[in-house]
Structure formats: structure tokens, C-alpha cells
Amino acid sequence: MYNEDDLLPLSGLQHLLFCERQWGLIHLEQVWEENRLTAEGRVLHEHAHSGGVENRPGIRISRGLRIHSFRLGLSGEADVVEFRPSPEGIALPGDGRGLWRPYPVEYKRGKPKQNACDEVQLCAQALCLEEMFGAELVEGSLFYGEPRRRTKVPFTQQLRARTEALALRMHALHRAGRTPVASHQEKCESCSLLHRCLPKLFSKPASVRKYLDRALDHE
Ligand code: SF4
What does pTM read for this prediction? Predict the structure, then answer.
């Protein structure tokens, strides 16, 4: 179990899955480069977070909910959490209308991505909600700008294990306190930090990278 002071931003998991160096630049060195894509994403999130709680018949919607997990050492904000009626759900304080199961919905600009970074982020939210509310979550949804519709994400054992492993890795890198070295790859061309990272200039040979990764794992 982590303490409150040890919690790391949940949003870092998506950076970590994309590239460990990108995570280090953003979360250890506070480097951030706003471009059209990140600006569009920020506006979408600000819109999703501008709500509070809304009660509709048969559903309760919470926007911008602060979430955390002391087990995984994560904290963040969920765009939208729907509370849906369920016999396996939990009673909400001051509600008195029955049992509800949390259902997270995360808003993303653009299309579904090649890697699973959005699924991992949503699953991390689910793990936080499970710990906070003591309810088991079965699935959530990602809402993409293109196409403008929801994609369901089941919280499988595999996705949960992957999310937990990434949270562990993020804490190991944070304890080490060193930004991983650059490694130029195809994905660098779509990275918002390409011009700050300069991977072609600073890439280390694979043998050096492996040595540094091993050293980090043993810290
Ligand atoms: S430019 Fe490449 S190596 Fe650098 S942070 Fe981005 S993805 Fe990682």
C-alpha cells in the first residue's frame, strides 16, 4: 500500500506505455510541448470535466471525479463515471435509490490507437473505483472523436494484470529518478516531444540501453 504522498498521476500510464522516455520527460523533467493534437485533447477533457453530478432516471452521472488507488499508488480524475443500477452494486451515500455499479467513460480525440494505452488508462480508473467504492467493475467505455461513438472495454484479467505491471514500473522509474535514454523508433514521428527529445541525436546503442535498463531493474 502506498501513502497519499506517494501517489503518481494515473495519466502517466499512457505516456509510459507509449514510451518510457516520454514518461520521464513529462513526469520527471516537466517537459511538455503543446501541439494541435494535445490541445484538442485538453479542450475535450476540460469539457468532459466541467460537470459535477447529474441525476437522471435510472442513472447517476459524475463528471471530473477525483479517483485514487493506494494499492497501485495512482491518483487522477475520471472524465465521466456513470452509476448504473445493479444488484451487485453498492449503495451511494445520501442516495437511497438502490444499488449502483460504477461505469467509467473516458473521452479521447481522434481514432482508436494502435497500442492499448487508452484501455490501460480506463482500466486504471476502474481499479481505483473498485478500491474506492468496494464494487467489482465489469466494463467501461472509450468515446472517440472519430467515429463519434463509444467503444466498450471489458476489464479482463489480462488488461488488469498489464495495468498493474505498468503502475509498478512507473513507480520503479520514479524511484530511480532518471529519464530513460532515447531510442529512435517509428513512433517518434508522432510523438509530441520529438523536437525536445531529439532521439536521432541522443539515441544510445541497443547494448548500452539494455545495460541501463538492467541497472534500473536492480535498483
Ligand atoms: S521522440 Fe521517441 S524516444 Fe523521444 S520521447 Fe518521443 S517516442 Fe520516446
Answer: 0.85
The answer to whether residues 202 and 182 touch, using CB atoms and an 8 Å cutoff, is: yes
All three cell numbers of 154, joined, read: 471489458
Total tally of structural domains belonging to the chain: 1
φ and ψ at residue 111, rounded to 5 degrees? -100, 165
22 Cα nearest atom in ligand 1 = 5
CB-based pocket (< 6 A), ligand 1: 19, 21-22, 25, 182-183, 187-188, 191, 193-194, 197, 199
CA of 176 to the centre of ligand 1 (A): 19
CATH number for the domain that contains residue 139: 3.90.320
pLDDT band at 125 (very low <50, low <70, confident <90, very high): very high
Please write the tens of the pLDDT for every residue from 5-53: 999 999 999 999 999 999 999 999 988 765 555 655 666 666 655 568 8
Helix axis angle, 117-133 relative to 157-176, nearest 10°?
90
User: What Rg value do the Cα atoms of the chain yield, rounded?
Assistant: 19
Length of the chain: 219
Domain that holds residue 121: 4-20+33-179
The CA 155 to ligand 1 mean position distance, Å, reads 29
User: Measured from the CA of 182, which atom of ligand 1 is nearest?
Assistant: 3
Residue 69: beta bridge partners?
Answer: 74
Q: How far apart are CA 72 and CA 104, in angstroms?
A: 18
Evaluate whether 127 touches 72 at the Cβ level (below 8 Å).
yes
